[in-house]
Amino acid sequence: MSKSFAANPVIGSIFLNRLGLHAGRAAVAHAMAKVRWALLAWQVAPDLRKTFQAQGFVVVPDVLPEEEFNALVSQVGSQQACEVRECIQGDTLTHRILLDDRALVQLSHVEKLLHHPLFEPLLTYCGANRKRPLHYVQSVKNGAVSGNHDLQKVLHSDTFHPTMKSWFFLDDVPLDKGPFTYVPMAHRPGRTRISLSGGTCRNGEPF
Question: Averaged over 80-93, what is the pLDDT?
């Protein structure tokens, strides 16, 4: 499903969007997600499903026992064989390791987490998709470089259709370190949001 308003003359048409093209695309995308959520609901605990549908996100503390968690943290911190990619956005420095099959050979504890009986089904349900998502080891350093303000620190919507991101934190993130912030119920396709012809998206396009 194309999302670029600028690159596509059809979905970017002012005339067609005034007639409801974009609102219709968003409504269909949300309807499809609802069907998939219903089909995948059996594999997730009712309380987690209820929280996700009500708030748009779910927080699960202490997924791993302390011993397994410490082993995972130690393994991630000591690995040296995986390729690290760097990204700078404004004053934020991000390092990422793609968790492909080659990387997971070096990170057995991480691979075990990705198949955890709570973690994996929850990602499948929230993403409304049985396809395995991309996973990374990620380090985000807030204010680590000189530069303009990082737009990722401004509340925004990544896209107009239901999607999913997840984080398994290896460290606590206090307020002064820039924790992720979410707006409860912002996932709901209300009439005001779904009819917007402009707004904030990760790529600067309308959602």
Answer: 87
